[in-house]
Amino acid sequence: MNYQIVLFKNKEKKKIINKFITFDKAKKCYDNMLKKSENVIFNVQTQNGKPCNYEIALIGKDKRKDPIYLKDSLGRNVKVELDTDEFSIIKIHQYNKEESFLDYKTKNKITTNQFINKYLKGGGLKMISKLNNKIVLQNEEKINLFTFKSEEDAFRFTDVLSNLFVKTNRKDCMVVNDYSTIQRKSLYDMLVDNGFSREYLQTYSTAFLLKK
């Protein structure tokens, strides 16, 4: 194969996504992936508690001699290198890898689009609340719970949704981030009364849950 699409994580080669014989097919696939990346609502920004950044590169055997540099999180220029001399980088761009989170009810991971399409459809006011690293969704009498990696990710999720609702002029969803002590206690009591474990609700990251 003459061309490959490669995923980089923190400037290091992570995996080969696809291989091609011709440049045209490789570039078409690469451009489609970039287009999908631009439409990702909630992307991966941390893994195992550490910041992470992704790029996808189109590499080929028609060697490009000029080195490619990208800026890291501190603004420093970092040379992007491959682990082989057979290929060289033709194009490389920032890539938004879609984040997923736990649907407590089904015990399955879902994406933001799946969350919107499944849980935010239909009439009625939907209230979305952050509680530690959880997102609580109230839709009339229905209550659903979603677990994120950390409090930071849960807050980022509500921020992303708030901006999306403003952008799309959506009026049937309310996002709540801040509570008084009394309101927090009331939310805990309501969730416990609906069968959720208080101990589980009070955890603040998935790392803490794994240690338990």
Give a topology summary:
Layout (H helix, E strand, L loop, with lengths): L2 E7 L2 E9 L2 H16 L7 E2 L2 E2 L2 E7 L7 E4 L5 E4 L7 E7 L6 E3 L4 E3 L1 H8 L6 E6 L2 E6 L2 E6 L3 H17 L5 E4 L4 H13 L4 H4 L4 H6 L1
Parallel strand pairs: 11-14
Antiparallel strand pairs: 1-2, 1-5, 3-4, 5-8, 6-7, 9-10, 9-13, 11-12, 12-13
Can you give a write-up of this model?
The protein is an alpha+beta fold and 212 residues long. The protein folds into 2 domains: 92 residues, no CATH class; 111 residues, no CATH class. It has 6 helices and 14 strands. The strands form 4 sheets. It has a 6-stranded mixed β-sheet with strand order 10-9-13-12-11-14. Strands 2-1-5-8 form a 4-stranded antiparallel β-sheet, with helices on one face. A hairpin with a 4-residue loop joins strand 9 and strand 10. The radius of gyration is 21 Å and the shape is elongated. The mean pLDDT is 89.
Write down the Rg.
21 Å
Shape: elongated
Strand content: 25-35%
Task: Detail the poorly predicted runs.
Answer: none
Sheet bearing the most strands, described?
Answer: 6 strands, mixed
Number of beta-strand segments = 14
List the total number of helices.
6
Strand order of the largest sheet: 10-9-13-12-11-14
- In the residues, how many domains can be counted? 2
The helix content, as a percent range, equals 25-40%
Rounded mean pLDDT score: 89
| Distance linking N and C termini | 47 Å
Secondary-structure element string:
EEHEEEEEEEEHEEEHEHHH
Which structural class should the secondary elements be placed in? alpha+beta
